[in-house]
Amino acid sequence: SAPAEWRTSLSAIAESDGVVIAGGGNLSQSWPAAVFERTAVVRAARRAGRPVAITGQTLGPAFDDRTRELTAALLRDAVFVGLREASSHALALALGAPRDRTVMQFDDATGVSPIEPPWWRDVIGDRDVIAVTLNRLWNAGDPEGSVAFIARQLVDVSRHTGATIVFVPHLGDLQGEPTEDVAMARAVAAAAGGSVPLLVTPLPTPAQAVWIAARAQLVVSTRYHPIVFAIAATTPALFLPQDHYTHVKGCGAMNLAGLGSWTLPVGAAAGGLLTPATLELWARRQEVREHLRGVVPAIETARRRHVDTLLSALAAPMTLSAGEPIAVMAGPVARGTWVEHAYTGGLHIDARSRRFEQQLASAEEYVGALRREVERKDAELVAAQAALADLTKATHEAHAAWQTDRDSLMRHCERLEERASTAEQWAGVLQKEVERKEAELVIAQAALEEAARQRRGEPTVPPDTEPESPGKPPHQS
Fold this sequence. Notes:
Helices cover 58% and strands 7% of the residues.
């Protein structure tokens, strides 16, 4: 049988009208376990005869043979595929996704409604803020001192703009020790010292993060969704990619908004370019915001059309048309000297090379762990497929048994109705027979009484004649 954690999901799939695989950005060789899980979901849905829609995806950009094969099968089996970047859209078509069911889209999170955090007024107040989100970039002790470089630059930005730097973590542990974004934010804030404080907010909900992005003057982030929230809220944003994968995602979102030049590799940012890039965006924030005010209505229209098309595909999988492509509106282009250095590698090449070597060593160790995880998930997938087959068989058998019982009950009811009709007719016959027998009984009783009088020598009473009362004279004519 399937592992216990699969049973609820398999039953939900079998009982659903359709399945939606939303977001994640993990259909790539970096997360083979996620590819295997989604493959299991699609196969389970296919066995149960349920349509599958895929939305809000980044593909790859790297695959090995196995993850490429499985991802291609997912795309072919889906009745709808939504991709967040032009590169992912092109890759999906190359993997065999049907062109008439494969669409470009803005990220699904552009539709999240904002909610003000209850702690904002006490922690931040009414001051202008630049919201910064950094994931845990250096796990090996930060040998190049990048945390301190970033801290000093953020202090400079705060002094030049008068805005408060507020770290808004998007990932961490609410209960335990500081991890991920929370740990990184505290490390940078500590490295800045106390001359210009860098604030760290509590871990927000998605709706609160949307509100903060709308409230900020600028958003600076190594993570994807702060950029998405900023664009949807017309807030100028600077994206800091850290590798090819994050470059594809974040720069893809910026390109759809017509702001692809406002990106800066995180290594170059740590090397000294964060300050000039952020200050140029600050100086031109009204220009960028005005551009986004023209983009946001198109985002909302495209998002609503995307949802309608997805639901139509699930309801009638054979009638989908990919619809209109997204029209990109060109926006303000970054033009500071930092742009030239950002992607030429002119700064801190040696430091970045050493960081890449460390990342490669960590990646190789991670690959080994992932291979073991893949083997385990492969075994779970086989077990899950067998369990689904058993569940489907049991469902068919139960339905057949119910149909048999229903037919038998209907036949029994028909026989009872026939017997009731016959009994009703027989009751009528018996009623007439009883009436006839009662009349015969009256005649027989009268005959017996007449015979008794004759034996006693009494005069015979004519029919329908009452006898005279004793002592009364005979009737005179």
